[in-house]
TrEMBL record:
It holds the Pfam family GGACT. Keywords: Transferase. One of its GO terms (molecular function) is transferase activity. Transmembrane segments: none annotated. It comes from the Eukaryota. It comes from Mortierella polycephala. Residues 10-144 form the Gamma-glutamylcyclotransferase AIG2-like domain. This is Putative gamma-glutamylcyclotransferase. Belongs to the gamma-glutamylcyclotransferase family.
């Protein structure tokens, strides 16, 4: 880990699971060493934001409920700053336990220099939790990543001021 790296990986459960969105937000340089693995977090639910293509994740009364997403290793402090700005005031960054679902190869496969990471292991990760107002979320349904990619991604990437447009 370099001095410019953040101490925890980041867990993403919404639009930032899409590589184009994540890269547009963090703008990693050519020297970036980012690795992504599927992961999940228990005790939370993911709900769509009313009138927007992204979700919010909130605590669930069912502690066995899980949200699947991506665990991303290798972000710098500047990347995290950009993520904080992107998430805005309705989301709070917390450090929570996230379960790894796939093997973690290479330089990222050791937690705190002690043991290799394996599927099923828990790691501490930065997670952006939705903090309200809760009426902004549609509590009647689960957010659908496939629908986001199919129905919203291309238009969002071209029109959102959060992203750098190369065209």
């Amino acid at each position: 880990m370099t001095i410019a790296s953040v101490p925890h990986p980041c867990f993403f459960y919404g639009s930032l699971m899409e590589p184009r969105v994540l890269s547009s937000v963090t703008r990693p340089g050519p020297e970036a060493d980012i690795y992504t693995v599927r992961a999940s977090i228990e005790g939370y639910i993911r709900r769509p934001y009313h009138g927007a293509p992204y979700p919010g994740m909130i605590s669930s009364q069912d502690k066995m409920q899980a949200v699947e997403g991506l665990l991303v290793f290798g972000h710098t402090l500047m990347d995290r700053f950009r993520l904080d700005q992107f998430e805005g005031s309705e989301y709070t960054r917390e450090v929570l336990s996230v379960k790894i679902l796939d093997p973690v190869p290479g330089a990222y496969n050791v937690e705190d220099g002690h043991k290799p990471l394996s599927p099923g292991d828990l790691v501490q990760a930065y997670v952006y939790i939705f903090t309200g107002p809760f009426e902004h979320l549609d509590q009647s349904r689960e957010w659908d990543f496939g629908a986001f990619q199919r129905d919203h991604l291309d238009v969002w990437m071209k029109t959102s001021s959060d992203f750098e447009n190369d065209s």
